[in-house]
Amino acid sequence: MEMEPYWSFRKIISQSLPFMILSGIGELFGGYFLSHYLEILPLVPGVFVLVPALMNVRNALDSALAARISTAMHLGVIKSRQNKEVSENVAGTVAVAIIVAVVAALSGYVVREAAGIPHVPLWGFAFISLLSLTTVAAIQSLFTVWLSFYARKHRLDPSSVVIPTLTTTGDVIVVVAVYLSVLAYLGVAG
Amino acid sequence: MYSAKRIILESAPPLVAFTFLSMFAGLTLETNAAFLATYPGVLLMIPAFIDSCGDISSSFASRLTTSLHLGTGRASLRSKRFRDNVAGTYVTTILFFIVMALLAFAFSAVLGLAMPPLLKFLAAVMASAVVVVTLDLAIAVAVSVATTMARLDPDNFEAPFLTTFSDVVGIMIFISFVGFVISL
After folding, report:
1. Which residue has the higher pLDDT, B65 or B181?
2. What are the boundaries of each domain within chain A?
3. Do B27 and A35 make contact, defined as CB atoms within 8 angstroms?
4. Helices A9-40, B80-111: inter-axial angle, 10-degree rounding
């Protein structure tokens, strides 16, 4: 009997749907934390504008880091966690996060200012954006490295396992990190 | 093989551009804050909606580019492989968002968050998901054709375009559809 090709209609659904539903349930928790923003929104007008941008950036940074580590593992360049390639990757990811956090803060401020909508001062955008994105980038980078080595140890393909796991955990972590950064900002700003 | 400097130089420019575009998704959330305060349960669905539309269309694009790389398929409805890819993507979208809308509704009830009536919410989620995924698929095909003609690797362009588009336009369409259906 001829085997059904991996790209068939039925295979596409049977392979993607179960994992997507699991991932979607994880995303609902992110949504739950997002609903808490409504309580603090009047105290920090404009900050909501940062959330989708930081989620998008986090997704791109984590996926790229995981793809690079996976490629380097397949090529035999990375064999242990104490490796210059690993530290360069993590340092590069956190550095890009800092650059993008500054741009996100400036963009958020400019978009709100141009739209004539009330907003927190520029330093408030910068404080919340930098604190949340660099914290998330550091946590997720270390998690990515650990997960990649865990996957390899258990003979799983890091490309297939790491990126889907990161997209599920990442959105929840970003939403929580921005929320906590807002509380820290309110503490500093009085 | 890798250096922090190279990672910064290659990753930062596109991410900076996409970050600026994503601000408009955030602006949509802000300007609809009053509506979302009335139905905070709708917020439960937002991360799942934007992330999953991007995931579904990125998977479609990845299958498409793999078949183009291998020379085993074309971006044309005359190709069975392409038709299966399109049909599989739509059926996955419909089944997935039915499950997610029901789960979001159930979670909201458990958490005590106000939600629109179930049938209206379900209709708005389904309609907006189908519209966003249809636009994503059109972009995926256009990007794959354009990058192949320009002798570029489509894998480097598909996912960033699709996830950013799903973020920015996805939120706008989702909030608009939910608002419109509730007003009926």
Report:
1. B181
2. 52-189
3. no
4. 30
A-interface mutation test, from B2, B80, B91, B171, most A Cβ less than 10 A away? B2
- What would the pLDDT profile of B4-41 be if each residue is shown by its tens digit? 888 888 778 878 888 888 888 888 887 888 888 899 99
pLDDT at A38: 79
Least CA distance to A53: which residue of chain B? B22
- Chain A contact for B44 (CB, 8 A cutoff): yes
Query: Which residue does chain B place closest to A27, by CA atoms?
Result: B48
pLDDT for B74 equals 80
Q: Which residue has the tokens 């929320």?
A: A179
CATH number of the B41-183 domain = 1.10.357.20
pLDDT at B145 over 90: no
- Could you give the CA distance from residue B33 to residue A4 in angstroms, rounded to a whole number? 48
Mutate to test the interface with B, among A23, A59, A166 (most CBs of B within 10 A): A59
3-state secondary structure A126-184: HHHHHHHHHHHHHHHHHHHHHHHHHHHHCCCCHHHHHHHHHHHHHHHHHHHHHHHHHHH
Cα–Cα dist B64/B77, whole Å: 12
Interface ipTM above 0.85: no
DSSP string, B88-150: HHHHHHHHHHHHHHHHHHHHHHHHT-----HHHHHHHHHHHHHHHHHHHHHHHHHHHHHHHHT
Contact A30 B168 (CB under 8 A): no
Nearest to A103 among B3, B16, B84 (CB): B16
Cβ neighbours for A19, distance < 8 A, ≥ 6 positions apart = A164
What are the residue boundaries of the structural domains of chain B, listed by start? 41-183
Q: Is the model's pLDDT at A159 over the cut of 60? A: no
Chain B touched by A66 (CB under 8 Å)? no
